[in-house]
Amino acid sequence: MAKSSIDLPPKGGFSFDLCRRNDMLQKKGLKPQSFLKTGTTIVGLIFEDGVILGADTRATEGPIVADKNCEKIHYMAPNIYCCGAGTAADTEAVTDMVSSQLQLHRYHTGRESRVVTALTLLKRHLFNYQGHVSAALVLGGVDVTGPHLHTIYPHGSTDTLPFATMGSGSLAAMSVFESKFKEGLTRDEGIKLVCEAILAGVFNDLGSGSNVDVCVITKGHKEYLRNHMQPNPRTYVNPKGFTFSKKTEVLATTITPLKEKVEVIEAGDAMEE
Amino acid sequence: MASNSDSVSDTQRTLYPYVTGTSVVALKYKDGILMAADMGGSYGSTLRYKSIDRLRPIGKHSLLGASGEISDFQEILRYLDELILYDNMWDDGNSLGPKEVHNYLTRVMYNRRNKFNPLWNALVLGGVKNGQKYLGMVNMIGINFEDNHVATGLGNHLTRPILRDEWHENLTFEEGVKLLEKCMRVLLYRDRSAVNKIQISKITEEGATLFPPYSLKTYWEFAAFKNPTVGAEGSW
Questions:
Q1: Torsion angle of the four alpha carbons B152, A151, A45, A48, in this order, in degrees rounded to the nearest 10
Q2: What does the UniProt record say this protein does (chain B) (predicted)?
């Protein structure tokens, strides 16, 4: 029987060809590379005018804090932001990818992006990779149909909620929400509640820490409050700081530039075609 | 008594729990200790028993709350019964206080853990003796500590943050109960093995009081719960 050459569509997904080699290397004693996880507290809630998202700023690599002040609230569209927990590279890549897709879609349709569009793009991608893309997201935004808040799990399932928490500190943050959330919060009450929830994660969960980032999205307006609260400032041994008492006398000053200052002429040599 | 692993005694070691109780939450307040637990006993993922008393007074000065395997809890109650009985038989005017009972439980739990045959419980021991309030916890692996507020199981993740934030010295009885109810409500929403039938008990210098069980009010009227797909008909 002749082999029929059917043109199969290119196989997507991960290639597991190197798994056997990796297993063999591990048995021989090679320690596998650890990856940067965000071990996180991320939250979102719907208030009277829109959506408020919050996140802590600690990125961990096993037991070590790799980044003390990373950004976990990612831009998706002018009216949509997304918090990410799980493997840092996965959350960055997936939100970046969907953000570009949304931009192209905006050009194509000439309209403001909708939150459900971002939701569907993200969940289709994550389901396709069967949970191997380890990104747990809290997606929030305000579009023509109103404010929306969704959670997306690494395997691709989604929930629509009035308040949501994800990450290792999600239980601590959820305990704050479950006891204090009510509908129709004002902007200040909402920000206060989001901060309280993130602080519960920061102080009670070892995978979360450092500062609190907040993002407020309302109809036609967004506010990204980076490091809105900094409850863990760097402290120094001497509370007064350092002062250098005896001022050194300046006898003479000479400045020698290490490189020659070159004048750049506009419209210089054009590049070769 | 063969205690090392051979085929006979292997089948007699506790390997997994069968009927389990969920979290216990307790805190110190002005007059003593307040403790709360629900009355459910789960058999795996079935809610088998809905009237299990998981809070018991021990002697004159202590209250014991247990989560984990119910049969091991009942065994511990028998050990403590014997302990208190012998203490009473001395008839010397002295009685075992919460610190002593806690220490006894710690030794029992740790010793069983060392024999690889643990009592599968997390115990909360609280009491007042001579004006001194005491609240401690022992684990199935023998971890013990004392603090102003403790919780077992999922309570550690869901209620300790609330307690760390809102507990303060000199809570009145009403404030304490309100705080415990807040904690039990969060557990009711977010712990799959929780039952809406909670029991609160208090222990003061005068003695222990177990209040009758009641259920908490819950709120399900959020707009997003009623209509999650507004603006995107057909999605989920």
A1: -150
A2: Non-catalytic component of the proteasome.
